[in-house]
């Protein structure tokens, strides 16, 4: 009962402003800081998102020895930062990113940190308005049954990402895999683990899977995409990371271009009725850094039809542009309580009824008729009656730079528009500068010498 007035007050605030004043101010800062050349109509940074972040030094050690790895050879010798220093990083990330911050809890293998400390870090992140995602190879969840569930219950974890690919070395039962097909039973095991963790705890867990793409596994990417589409109830996002020559990555490994990667991804989506275009109308940061493709999946009588949420057509771009320009793109529903979700949604609808009940509704109805042979009303009815399953999968790729790329004009432009930043010595530093610009090595050297990183505001 004590929390009820606060919940009502929070819901009323979200009804009045579904984005919040803090988020709007941060979005405006990001937008004004962008080079005008990057401020295209579909630019998500500054219109939809304030960016993403990650921790550093939380647990440099890793018990794998992957052939493609952004950590340096010194990582296993570097002590983990004390909890207080990690919490200070989270404070800086929260100020930089705002409410519903997207923050990866990562560095080496964070699940090697004592469980009590990891739980304390997760709980603190949630307490200040961050949505933390634990990035892991996942084997400690396999070795310690109940560990994932403990993070969900005691640590309030709602997001996890599990990396699986043939560059990994040291996994139980898969010491040196040679094919992504060889790893399909492992993916099945993790999918079952995620479903079971949700069922046994009764809690939400959004799961992603990531993989490094090299010349060696490029031809198997369609198989991985097909598997993920069929298991999208377990993994709702898959992130492809073309190999970059950073850290201790083996020199004999060859990366791939974004065009080569997405050509292979498209072979899989074509099996589900979707031809992917060469480019997307929405981007986050510089066009060379990320490709982000949300898909809607409509499954009826065992057949799945994929729809691209925003296509590169005049009508789709016009609707997207109107939505972003109305100023409500920063609304984030993840982890809202039911009352908050209702209030935020109602606030959005009432702020711009002509868009949501008019143009956007007509646009979606036309697309559903043309692509899926249904309508919004019929789809809603069939979903309620469980005659159709409606969900989705997000495909994304992140293209990290090598040291040589950083020094080019394009590399500098990419750093300036970087969406993904880490708190290093009190400043928010682009991920590629950390990976390929010597920032990580310098940070680790300081930690190894017993240097205590300054708290936010103390740098300099």
What would you say this structure looks like, in words?
The protein is an alpha/beta fold and about 450 residues long. It has one domain (about 5-450): TIM Barrel. About 40% of the residues lie in helices and about 15% in strands. Strands 8-7-9-6-5-4-3-2-1-10-11 form an 11-stranded mixed β-sheet. Strand 4, helix 7 (about 185-200) and strand 5 (about 205-215) form a beta-alpha-beta unit. Helix 1 runs parallel beside helix 11 and helix 3 runs parallel beside helix 4 (about 115-125). The longest helix has 20 residues, at about 355-370. The protein is globular.
Give the arrangement of secondary structure elements.
Elements: H1 4-16, H2 21-33, E1 52-54, H3 83-97, E2 101-105, H4 115-127, E3 130-136, H5 139-143, H6 147-153, E4 159-163, H7 184-201, E5 206-213, H8 221-230, E6 237-242, H9 258-270, E7 290-300, E8 303-308, H10 314-325, H11 338-351, H12 353-372, H13 376-384, E9 389-398, H14 403-406, H15 409-416, E10 420-424, E11 427-430, H16 431-436, H17 439-448
Parallel strand pairs: 1-2, 1-10, 2-3, 3-4, 4-5, 5-6, 6-9
Antiparallel strand pairs: 7-8, 7-9, 10-11
Helix pairs in contact: 1-11, 3-4, 6-7, 8-9, 10-12, 11-12
